[in-house]
């Protein structure tokens, strides 16, 4: 019984595959990279040959690198960083930097200050306080928000100049990623591909002759293989998600969002996820960030003021959802309301966090398989399988060793893109709910968790750890080395269903 693999599949063991009909003699070629704009890049190219797909891949990477050298606040040599180091001097800047600065002016006005590049001033206050394991003082927050209220630049569009007016820290990260992503997708089409999906850290642009199934991550259960909160099918649109569940600071054992309300200096913790679908990627990114700060009724008013063509889903910290009137028209699965915390007798689950090492520059992600075997070495559940090309799957030799056995053990293959809050580069999380791929609970006993990684013309490694489901909660460290920097498994009581 031989298997038919779908290139680039992420095996989740749950869900439904939403397929599109490919034009004749064309197929989807996937590419995966780490440390792209500080996160991961998943690229799908619809092309008649691998060579043509690779041309589009190169065009995408080149455009991302080019615009990052213009807009990055974290690269001291970028055009933005060099301009931000000046003061009260009109400078000729690139059309891209001039456009993005102008867009920040527009969104600052539209949102009443909820979206502001100088929110970075308040973010730094929170990070410093967290480093000292204390809450920021009201005096610190007042001083930072006073800086936010200042005018930070002036633009002369006719002359093509921008003048930096003060020393307040600023960063163009609210929607610069989506702005770059949109141009990268356009570069792929210009390189000759007929369809492209660019997913940078959970923000996605779909362009050309392709309908992409997109899953919206559940903010209360954001593991890579968890059931989504909604499923959509999109063509020639962008989708952006902002949320507080993957990044933030810890103070006194409590998580605080990385998203700041620049008007008050407080962290935006009442909204846990905001997802926006729009034709324009930068608009989707700006709105997703703003909606994480605004109240749901304010977000509804803001979207109405922008005209039609925008759909959204907002989820608050209690699991309540707020969605646009047209959301269900694009949703293959209606948005579900997140559940309350599990009771004390909740079932156990295994959570595996792993980090892929980051070489310098854009680096292709290695092929990775994560699975569970029982004491008889039978593979009961594949938690994740990340790869690009079918022909190299045998390089995952431990996972691949018995194709017939694997075909029986595995579940559904998922090729959807996932819209989610931005993850850190190389950081992934998967879960095992104690069931096999048929959804049946496994027998109590001893099981082995495997993490296997293989890179073309590069290193190979396999990590493993044992868990006894009859022995209660336990933490296991799988010692990393080459491609997998670290992997930690926690067997625990489920927190959310």
Uncertain runs: 1-21, 339-343, 408-414
Shape: globular
Can you count the beta strands? 28
What is the C-alpha radius of gyration, as a whole number of Å? 23 Å
List the helices and strands and how they pair.
Blueprint: E1 10-11, E2 27-36, E3 39-47, H1 50-71, H2 79-84, E4 91-92, H3 95-110, H4 119-131, H5 138-148, E5 153-156, E6 161-164, H6 176-190, E7 195-200, E8 203-208, E9 212-216, E10 230-234, E11 238-243, E12 248-251, E13 254-257, E14 271-278, H7 281-293, H8 296-305, E15 311-316, E16 321-323, H9 327-330, E17 331-333, E18 348-356, E19 363-364, E20 367-374, E21 379-386, H10 397-400, H11 403-409, E22 413-414, E23 417-419, E24 427-432, E25 446-454, E26 460-468, E27 474-478, E28 484-493
Parallel strand pairs: 9-23
Antiparallel strand pairs: 1-22, 2-3, 2-19, 3-7, 4-6, 5-6, 7-8, 8-11, 9-10, 10-17, 11-14, 12-13, 14-15, 15-16, 18-24, 18-28, 20-21, 20-25, 25-26, 27-28
Helix pairs in contact: 1-6, 4-5, 6-7
